């Protein structure tokens, strides 16, 4: 059944298929990549990396591994993943203390040439002595 569905999806034009892909979760997109090579080449990296959400709420090794894995995927030789990222959401605790992690984030941001939107949550809640929560938000039409 899944193979038949992916075969039907391949009959759609690019614009229709990209609209559908943009509405699917990362897990669903990954499942589609397993159906055939054509879906794999269509989805990775263009749609799988279009919207990236990283949570650094816990200062634990798995969270750091997630960030390092993302960085490696966008900096690997021949990788197009960094060019595919359009939306980046970072969720971190107030005044996130790990300088090495912040440095890695800074290097990663430098590789995201077509990034249009960044949403930071939690990370800057205590900046300037303010205790009220806010969501710093950066939204830009890419002009480089």
Percent of residues in beta strands: 5-15%
Main sheet: which strands, in order across?
1-2-3-4
Could you give a short account of the major beta sheet?
Answer: 4 strands, mixed
Percent of residues in helices comes to: 40-55%
Report what the structure shows.
By secondary structure, the protein is an alpha/beta fold. It folds into 2 domains: 1-48, no CATH class; 50-144, no CATH class. 45% of the residues lie in helices and 12% in strands. It contains 7 helices and 4 strands. It has helices at residues 2-10, 14-22, 26-33, 37-43, 61-75, 81-84, 99-111; strands at 51-55, 87-91, 117-121, 137-139. A 4-stranded mixed sheet has the order 1-2-3-4. Strand 2, helix 7 and strand 3 form a beta-alpha-beta unit. The chain is elongated. Mean pLDDT is 77; it is low at 125-137.
Topology readout:
Blueprint: H1 2-10, H2 14-22, H3 26-33, H4 37-43, E1 51-55, H5 61-75, H6 81-84, E2 87-91, H7 99-111, E3 117-121, E4 137-139
Parallel strand pairs: 1-2, 2-3
Antiparallel strand pairs: 3-4
Q: Which descriptors would you attach to this protein?
A:
7 helices, four-stranded mixed sheet, 2 domains, alpha/beta, 144 residues, single chain, 45% helix
How would you summarize what this structure contains?
This protein is α/β, with parallel strands linked by helices and 144 residues long.
């Amino acid at each position: 059944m899944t193979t038949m569905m992916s075969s039907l999806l391949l009959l759609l034009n690019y614009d229709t298929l990209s609209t559908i892909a943009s509405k699917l979760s990362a897990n669903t997109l990954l499942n589609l990549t397993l159906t055939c090579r054509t879906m794999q080449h269509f989805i990775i990296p263009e749609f799988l990396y279009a919207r990236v959400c990283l949570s650094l709420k816990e200062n634990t090794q798995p969270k750091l591994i997630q960030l390092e894995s993302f960085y490696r995927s966008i900096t690997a030789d021949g990788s197009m993943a960094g060019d595919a990222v359009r939306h980046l959401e970072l969720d971190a605790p107030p005044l996130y203390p790990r300088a090495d992690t912040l440095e890695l984030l800074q290097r990663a941001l430098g590789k995201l040439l077509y990034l249009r939107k960044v949403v930071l949550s939690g990370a800057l809640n205590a900046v300037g002595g303010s205790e009220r929560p806010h969501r710093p938000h950066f939204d830009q039409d890419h002009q480089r």
